[in-house]
Amino acid sequence: MQQLLYGVAYYDEYMPYERLDEDIRMMKEAGINLVRIAESTWSTHEPQNGVFDFTSVDRVLDAMHQAGIHVIVGTPTYAIPTWMVKEHPDVLAVTPNGPGRYGARQIMDITNPTYLFYAERIIRKLIGRVCKHPAVIGYQIDNETKHYHTSGPNVQQRFIKYVKERFGTVEELNKAFGLDYWSNRINSWEDFPSVVGTINGSLGAEFARFQRQLVTDFLAWQASIVNEYKRPDQFVTHNFDFGWRGHSHGVQPDVDHFAAAQAVDIAGADIYHPSQDKLTGKEISFCGDSTRSLKGTNYFVLETQAQAFPHWTPYPGQLRLQAFSHLASGANMVEYWHWHSIHNSIETYWKGLLSHDLGPNPTYEEAKTIGRDFAKLSDKLINLKKKNRAAVLVSNEALTSMQWFPLPGGNVSYNDVVRLMYDRLYEMNIGCDILYPQSDSFEQYDLIVVPALYAASDELLARLNEYVKNGGNIVYTFKSGFANEHIKVRSETQPAIIGDACGIQYSQFVEARDVTLKGDPFEVGAEHNNVNVWMELLVPTTAEVLAFYDHPHWGAYAAITENRYGQGTATYIGCLPSEQVIRKVLERACRTAGLWGVDQELQFPIIVKSGINEAGRTIRYYFNYSDEPVSFSYPHEDGVELLTEQLIRTNGQLSLERWGVAIIEADGE
Amino acid sequence: MQQLLYGVAYYDEYMPYERLDEDIRMMKEAGINLVRIAESTWSTHEPQNGVFDFTSVDRVLDAMHQAGIHVIVGTPTYAIPTWMVKEHPDVLAVTPNGPGRYGARQIMDITNPTYLFYAERIIRKLIGRVCKHPAVIGYQIDNETKHYHTSGPNVQQRFIKYVKERFGTVEELNKAFGLDYWSNRINSWEDFPSVVGTINGSLGAEFARFQRQLVTDFLAWQASIVNEYKRPDQFVTHNFDFGWRGHSHGVQPDVDHFAAAQAVDIAGADIYHPSQDKLTGKEISFCGDSTRSLKGTNYFVLETQAQAFPHWTPYPGQLRLQAFSHLASGANMVEYWHWHSIHNSIETYWKGLLSHDLGPNPTYEEAKTIGRDFAKLSDKLINLKKKNRAAVLVSNEALTSMQWFPLPGGNVSYNDVVRLMYDRLYEMNIGCDILYPQSDSFEQYDLIVVPALYAASDELLARLNEYVKNGGNIVYTFKSGFANEHIKVRSETQPAIIGDACGIQYSQFVEARDVTLKGDPFEVGAEHNNVNVWMELLVPTTAEVLAFYDHPHWGAYAAITENRYGQGTATYIGCLPSEQVIRKVLERACRTAGLWGVDQELQFPIIVKSGINEAGRTIRYYFNYSDEPVSFSYPHEDGVELLTEQLIRTNGQLSLERWGVAIIEADGE
Amino acid sequence: MQQLLYGVAYYDEYMPYERLDEDIRMMKEAGINLVRIAESTWSTHEPQNGVFDFTSVDRVLDAMHQAGIHVIVGTPTYAIPTWMVKEHPDVLAVTPNGPGRYGARQIMDITNPTYLFYAERIIRKLIGRVCKHPAVIGYQIDNETKHYHTSGPNVQQRFIKYVKERFGTVEELNKAFGLDYWSNRINSWEDFPSVVGTINGSLGAEFARFQRQLVTDFLAWQASIVNEYKRPDQFVTHNFDFGWRGHSHGVQPDVDHFAAAQAVDIAGADIYHPSQDKLTGKEISFCGDSTRSLKGTNYFVLETQAQAFPHWTPYPGQLRLQAFSHLASGANMVEYWHWHSIHNSIETYWKGLLSHDLGPNPTYEEAKTIGRDFAKLSDKLINLKKKNRAAVLVSNEALTSMQWFPLPGGNVSYNDVVRLMYDRLYEMNIGCDILYPQSDSFEQYDLIVVPALYAASDELLARLNEYVKNGGNIVYTFKSGFANEHIKVRSETQPAIIGDACGIQYSQFVEARDVTLKGDPFEVGAEHNNVNVWMELLVPTTAEVLAFYDHPHWGAYAAITENRYGQGTATYIGCLPSEQVIRKVLERACRTAGLWGVDQELQFPIIVKSGINEAGRTIRYYFNYSDEPVSFSYPHEDGVELLTEQLIRTNGQLSLERWGVAIIEADGE
User: Fold this and answer.
1) pLDDT of A95-128, one tens digit each?
2) Which of A4, A527, C351, C666 could serve as A378's disulfide partner, Cβ 3.0–4.6 Å?
3) Mean predicted confidence (pLDDT) in A461-481
4) Using one digit for the tens of pLDDT, what is the confidence trace for C211-248?
5) What span, in angstroms and rounded, lies between the C-alpha atoms of B103 and B105?
6) SS3 B517
7) Do the chains contact at A348 and B405, CB–CB below 8 Å?
8) pLDDT tens string A322-365
9) Which residues of C are less than 8 Å from A187 in CB distance?
10) Looking at the DSSP assignment, which residues form a beta bridge with residue B506?
11) CA–CA separation, C516 vs B190, rounded Å?
12) Per-residue pLDDT tens over the stretch B197-218
């Protein structure tokens, strides 16, 4: 990228009256230099089967070009027109809930050839038309693609072939998945039942993996079409979204981001997060780290919130804080979904930068200051290179396996455990990458944190042991190593394979009720010293016990252990303690790994993020994620605060307003 | 009406043994002078297709006539016989939940021609047979008719024609409903998808309006048939029911009462309400005012509770209090559902006046006193004329729109806002009418209260502005004016159109959390001064601010405003405050409108209702809705308490027992 | 039985690697002398239609025989193979939720002839093959059989014939079920609608009774086949399970245990119960008493928990306590489900005696001590004869009727009322039998407790009156007598029929809110003196009032009464008081019935159970169901504590560890 991009999704088609010139005028005033168009409006561009009308695309491209605003064109394939469903009802995905109903987006069967035929045609028509337009800098293929739980007979048919390919014989399959149980054996491929009703988690998880593969294939197929038209100066991207809990929350269960991202030139993400008093920057950081790690370089924030919901309307200052937080994680683009609030249909209350009155409002006014600063500082802030020494290993397989075998109570999911660990690192200003099972870069990290790696191959666990042996440091949580990649529980002593590195074993686990850690070993005080939900009854073999349970019957068992193994150290957390205890355990591991420095003396709500800019100088972002002003001593080399252009000296006092930002450029790392 | 009617629904068909003479004996003893029959028992009257058996009707009519008890005959069309469903399964309504199942009542497609054919036949057979019988004073068509969510292909087909009729072209439709969004455009009428899965609230709300029209049409069709047989001295009525929350609660979402009532001679209602310690009279008043306002005159309570559920079994005195409360709102009939408790099926625990043992019981004994007093006072209490100076404007469209776009949290519905306002007026003894968007009588009121008028036409909002300009007083709540009649959010500055009269504007709104009104402006104390759920960030243009928000970021915005506009005043409540604050705001508006008088010095639980009787004298009801005796000074002209026949002098002391009633007839208004 | 059986369910088919010899070695070490095999693995034994493979059966039988371990062979019919469903999808039960999906067990239509054909074939193949094997001591037919809500058209067709058989004419049917209501009449058998959507509880309950009959017939059919092969020294049993609330909780709604048990030689049960701090022994006792009462003699515990769920993992000592508790109720077998934890599929976390690592663990170690003690004491503890003087009457009909007409709030079910009464007797060490409506042994008891007998025939109520008249003592709760066996509410004065014996009547009932018993008549203190959910407004005719309600309006009515009737006494509890009040009322009734003795001076958590062993001596079990050691005076004849072989003298001190057991053999009763 040559320029920081500050953008909005723009829907000329949704406008209640002619607004294009006025919209562009207001965009320019706010420093908007990018719009994304066309990705939601297939029925406008192809009002009838084979009848095309790109009026709104053409006029927007021309007008944006004239105004010097870049355009990303989206393929409009995630929301299908009425005529298609009327002609070919079978384009709708059959799901475990039955046949589909027209209405919402993302309801089609992404493997249906009729759908694919029409999708390819509209892509070729649209991209063929716009690819030479000077305003177009790139393409977004589809939108937050997932598999939409497609599982009709045709999908089942393909799944059987996929399984046959992987296992060869029914005998291998029956053995791998334990299908003797409850008479579920498949003794002939012809007997393969629909997987929709299965109670076998191994089979169910294999189907989920297959469905994720469908997404990977679909995106690769779209990219291959768009690539035929793409100019050398253009890119293909996709807006991956995340596990959702009213906001972006964790690993996306339905997509293998790492595999799917192979098809695109630049990884992109949609990041939505709590706001107002609940704004912490955690989702911006987690989703940013995840997306940056897909290709190990800078990424796009293709969607994030402007005003959004009534409970997300930003406090003064928060829109700025958010924008620079994205940059600090390595984003080269911050794009709002969307420019204007929509006057009809289901996202009416998901407000854009403009309210429904389409005039200025306080959030828009704040955006103007961001646009100004992005333009001013683009050269210094773009293409930030980040080199983190810690990483968190996440896994679709582990996530799926814990959907099949949830923790007791059902309230703590895999992503909760991921975030329990990640968020503590964030609070301590430990910069992180995200690792995926396919990553081949374990060795470059001093610390790897492994939350609840319930399902993993022998090979992955052996690699983790090897990493420790060679001097790496790992912090595991409970459940790690328990099952293989087919979610078959291992019959070795638990935790299987990694027990070697951790120096522990256990044969029983219980729900934690009225349990604490004996003697408050981490000095977190009575209110934070309790254990909840889960506890493995650990017996150390070679490990040192960091904490025992305090319980009338299980008091002899270890809760948290640490083991020297080869040149490295493996910590194992066998239970669900409080955030405070997790933080202390991670701090200990960070210190062991040599990751503790001056930035760790600051803690959330003061967040520090850093990287190297194109000039080779260090950019350090300081964020105040709180409603109170803060002030602290700046510990690094003398630098310049770029927003105010003030010189900041080592050990000088740095003050941040509530929800404030400072950006210091300095020499050194 | 010549006589106050005190009645019961009577089901000879349900009796476990021959009881007719004994029932009539007990009815006479209780002063029952009316029964409603036949409306639930189609399968008894037509046991096989085309085979009729009106034995139970004939014998009941004869016996009642002999006993001097009037009869309303109901058409039995709301519960269909087994033979019909077996022969023609497609008479069952297809709903969003799929095809229907036989069992419950109100499960048919009210547009199905097979059903309509059989319904017409049984109506003609039954009404033709009974219409000359001297016992019959009138007819109830069907029972609590609604559309039962019928939405199968035939209904969809009619809906498309209805939409075509309203919008003319798909282009108009797409524009009005914003169907470009998510590729929902209908570019050809042939493409019109089933509305069942739609995510477009405009389309969904139009379908709801269409479904309400089906109900209006169905009732008009039934009335037209019955009218062919009706004697001049007979009437047609219908028992409208209300939005339900375990009891009658507010506006009925599925019926346009105002439109549907055009077909009947006398408006009727089914009114069910909490009891025991939760008896307040509010539902009796709200539903009574609603029904009276349909035709601007007296109405029937065709169903209300006798013993009903275990948690409704009335305390001693409550049955009397309820009966006279109905009269005080203008009812000419109080009819219990039902005479005897049923020994089988789903309403076994919805007990009638008699328990399952069919003998006397304490509630029946109390009914005897009511029958006695109704007979004694009939001439004085019948045909009470009420002239209220305040009104509450309600709207099916607003209700539907807030089902599509609910308030945050989903716990506060349109009807909750309606009742929040109405109930405060009730507590202050402000007599109310109910206005509907079709009402043409705005100008006759000094005060109109407008709760959450989310969806409304330009014309309606302009009429409301005009009303204020001409000297009227309005109190609006939040959300009013936000969208047009197609639930398209207006792109004018909000609150659109009415912002002129209210002298305010806003472009942002948020969820209210930990927010209060600055400085407790209404002096309600800390526990009642908070704001919840919703707050619009109001900026006054010409309005006076009655309350600001107390919030670290939104403190500069107004919460409640008042504006002089032309000759009148418009108050706007931009948030959801406590009942106490609402009461203070309404009290202020009442005083401005000149509605504050001596009756307002009394407050709930002492309720005063009044009207003019046929002799032109004022009847004033005093109710004690509490478990403690009360005593107060009677402020009006000297009068006679009709139950005790005591003279009550101005400023004399009036005492009411717990759950007690007094009725004073006096000169003057 | 010649020997106490200590067993496990064993699945060679599920093993992740060859383990048979090692498993047998570990079983022998734990004293396991019984395994149950084959009941879950049809698809292993018949991998394709008509292709049989009994390898795992043969090899396990041989190996067990060699090791001296007995085998029960289960018919594998409760979980069907994939090939059957692929060939004949209609073997899946159609239920109110629609057609079935393959995956889980217990999803077939137990009346489907295709299923029955294949089921009979596999039974004959399997049982014919194993019946002569010396290891086989008996057979379990099917597994926890229920009707799985089968209600498709074929079942409906049979139901109509069943109804025709019972009622003869539609007229009788309409009358019995009150089908005039809501036009539900069936005026011709051809019109009979599917019962799935019915709102008529009488019809619904009749269908439930019919479905239970299907279960009875199915088990009798299976037994008749197995009986053809059974050797004289072998038995047929079945593992009945119970109403489920996360554990065995009460009467099984879907099976008539009493009727179904006629088909088997020995009654068996699956008993699962809370553990750890929630272990009380109540479910062990209730389910044991229920199963023993089916045939009036000793029974099998065919399944109970070893480690099971994380929240059930037993504390040290609990596995022993549980095992001997089963024996104390008359069990001759304690069998764990299951030997080893399963590595795949839905019951992965329902752990067996072995953990997934298949090695020893603390629970397995404790099982070894049980095996040792069972072997040592088998002769003394086997075939314990119990003679209880109290009984609790339970009824499928009453349970179903209270599903149709639940108590207000929906939180208190029939089984809750059953357990409310039963558990208090348990806590007072009153040994109980369970009576069913078909039982003919009322007269042998001094006290019968009758919880919520909502639906009962005239004949049953008359028998209960007769029982009291002849000197028996009954404690009824509310709702008893209210409806007949068709759930038609009786039109006599309530409580109908039994009102004679109880000396009371009522015509009204209400929900209990803020109600207490006047003057705390049972001296339970304010916190336990309240009444909840339900109160009948009782008026005594001849009864003595034990408690009045304290309520501003219902204070004149009685809550609990006692009446002398003939030679006996009938107590009636007209409301839902606290456990403490129930206990006091039951204590009073026990004293009246002469059931109060030295064992009643001990109370829960000290539990005493006794019986006569084969030598004619009295065995008394003392259990400490608490986490604290207890000590008390032993009040009976001198005896020997069998586990320690210590002499215990009358009035000697007996000490029990936490969760401890003592077993004393002595003369006398």
Assistant:
1) 999 999 999 999 999 999 999 999 999 999 999 9
2) A4
3) 98
4) 999 999 999 999 999 999 999 999 999 999 999 999 99
5) 7
6) strand
7) yes
8) 999 999 999 999 999 999 999 999 999 999 999 999 999 999 99
9) 43, 47-48, 81-83
10) B494
11) 67
12) 999 999 999 999 999 999 999 9
The domains located in chain A, with CATH, are 5-149+212-381 (3.20.20.80), 390-594 (3.40.50.880), 603-666 (2.60.40.1180)
Compute the radius of gyration of chain B from its Cα atoms: 26
Q: What is the mean pLDDT of residues C351-367?
A: 98
* A105 in a labelled binding site: yes
Each as own residue / partner, the long-range contacts of residues C316-319 (CB below 8 Å, 24 or more positions apart, any chain) are C316/A553, C316/C362, C316/C366, C316/C659, C317/C366, C317/C657, C317/C658, C317/C659, C317/C660, C318/C275, C318/C276, C318/C279, C318/C659, C319/C363, C319/C366, C319/C367, C319/C370
Which residue from C minimizes the CA distance to B107? C197
- pTM for this predicted structure: 0.97
Q: Which residues contact C41 (CB under 8 A, 6 or more apart)?
A: A180, A183, C11, C13, C56, C76, C79
* pLDDT the model gives residue C1: 73
Using CB atoms, pick whichever of B86, B348, B357 lies closest to residue C493. B357
Residues of C in contact with B53 (CB under 8 A): none
Q: How far, in Å, CA of C570 to CA of C475, rounded?
A: 6
Mean pLDDT, rounded, for A258-274: 98
pLDDT at C652: 96
**Whole-Å CA distances, C548 to C425, C510, C516, C542:** 24, 15, 9, 15
Tokens for A378, please give them: 């683009």
Instruction: Give one word for B577, left, alpha or beta, with left for phi > 0 and alpha for psi -120 to 50.
Output: beta
Instruction: Name the pLDDT band for B1 (thresholds 50, 70, 90).
Output: confident
Task: Say which of B101, B105, B348 has its CB closest to residue C196.
Answer: B101
* Distance from C-alpha of A4 to C-alpha of C525, rounded to nearest angstrom: 74
Q: Which neighbouring-strand residues pair with A656?
A: A630
CA B2, B3, B6, B8: dihedral to nearest 10 degrees? Answer: -30
What band does A669 get if pLDDT is binned at 50, 70 and 90?
low
Q: What is the mean pLDDT of residues A132-139?
A: 98
Task: Using the CB atoms, write b or e for B373-387: b if 16+ within 10 Å.
Answer: bbeebbebbbbbebe
Confidence of residue B154 (pLDDT cuts 50, 70, 90): very high
Percent of chain A clearing pLDDT 70 (strictly above): 100
**Lookup: tokens for C295:** 């045939």
Angstrom distance (rounded) from CA C100 to CA C108: 8
- Report the SS3 class of residue A235: strand
pLDDT score of A127: 98
Asked if residue A487 lies in contact with residue A453, where contact means CB atoms within 8 angstroms, the answer is no
Q: Is residue B669's pLDDT more than 70?
A: no
The pLDDT value recorded for residue C667 is 87
C-interface mutation test, from A187, A485, A551, most C Cβ less than 10 A away: A187
pLDDT for A562 beyond 70: yes
| SS3 label, residue A402 | helix
**CB-nearest partner of B83 from C187, C491, C552:** C187
Torsion of CA B424, B429, B433, B435, to 10 degrees: -20
Q: Cα-flanking dihedrals φ and ψ of residue A99, to 5°?
A: -65, 155
Cα torsion at B89, B93, B96, B97 (round to 10°)?
-50
Q: Cβ(C271)–Cβ(C301) under 8 Å?
A: yes
CB C357 to CB A177 under 8 A?
no
Site of tokens 């562009």 = A24
Q: In Å, how far are A36, A604, A651, A665, A667 from A637, measured between CA atoms?
A: 40, 22, 9, 9, 7
DSSP C308: B
CA distances to A74, C244, C432, C613 from C329, in Å: 72, 20, 10, 12
B337 appears as a binding residue in the annotation: no
